[in-house]
Amino acid sequence: MNLPIKAGIIGTGYVANQRAQTLQADSRSELIVVSGHTPTTVQQFAQTHQTLAVDSWQQVVEHPQVDLVFVCTINRDHGAIARATLEVEKHLVIEYPLSLDPKEAESLINLAQTRGKLLHVEHLELLGGLHQALRESLPQIGNPFYARYVTIVPKHPAPKRWSYHPELFGFPFNAALPHIHRLTNLFGEVASVSCQSRFWDLSDYYSACLCTAQLRFKNSLIAEVTYGKGDRFWQALRNFEVYGEEATLLFEGQQGTLIRG
Question: Domain 125-260 carries which CATH code?
Answer without folding.
Answer: 3.30.360.10
